[in-house]
Amino acid sequence: MEKRRVRQKIILSALAGMVMVPGSAMTVSAAEEAEREQSFVPVAGIETVLEECYETEVKDNINLYLVPTETGEYLNMAFSDTEDYTCIRSAPDENSDWVGKLYSDSAVEVLEYLDGWTKIRSGNAEGYVPEDALITGEAARDCAREYERNTVTVTAYCLNVRAGQGTDTEILTQISQGEEYIATGDPVDGWYPVDVSGISGWVSGKYVTAETSYNYGETKEEEAQRLAEEEAQRQREEQEAEAAAAAAASASAGQAVIDYACQFIGNPYVWGGTSLTDGADCSGFVQSVYAHFGISLPRTSSAMRSAGYAVSYEEAQPGDLILYEGHVGLYMGDGRIVNAMNEEKGIGICSATYTGIVAVRRVL
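-> structure tokens emitted (364 positions)
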């Protein structure tokens, strides 16, 4: 309370222009005296100054200068008081263009009080909002912590998230350098509580940088850019999901191919043959297996190199064609193929890397 009284005295003294100290005297030159006579307001007493201040609504605005910050004090800080958002307008008029938005968790700098409106700056957005859209003065002081955004940024290459405050507690997970997390509460004995993908734990303050900040409004242009980025991200995620679904469907279909092909393990190898029961060569075997699923493939292994589309061996999944010089097999997974090997071994299973791979093709 004493600090607030001092702050008011300073403001009012500045408004008065000067405060005379009893018993003091100043010596000035004739030029200085003339300049003072032109620049100073007439000395009519502090009561007159106060009356003028009240007439210009300083009385209503004086508590604005008393809201403390995280460092103890600051001027002109206020917070949004809206459920979703309030438009920041170009003029103190509901019909004026909106230039930005002030969201429910935003902090602002108050620039000016008007009749029913307040001029603010929040982030890069500057303009006017209705006065009832803000919490100001001592009310802002009382709720300031509710608007704080407390974060920790990892400075260690790899940091353990523990079950309690101490290196002897259980390690729940690990986080990496540069990652930022919301501090979910106050630090205890130098340890900060965090939530990492639903895991609640503690990190040592020695290996994080703690910061208290606020959320701010955004300009119309910033909102447009954010929405465009969010839409682009949504489309990327949608495409990734579709690709993952297609890959899963392909893998499932490919496994069905392998399950069918493995029924003929032990049957004979016959050069030029295409019978899964009476005998087939390598390409005849693959061609006949896929024919069962309604997919037509070329007759020779060399021609099969253009079937479907190419994938890397690292991406290979069950049902893919693994092609070699003069040979072809069906990838089973786990580095193995089922294939018509030779007259001695017939249709069987061997390593997919028994020799150099020329191509991997996916036809599903």
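The radius of gyration is 38 Å.
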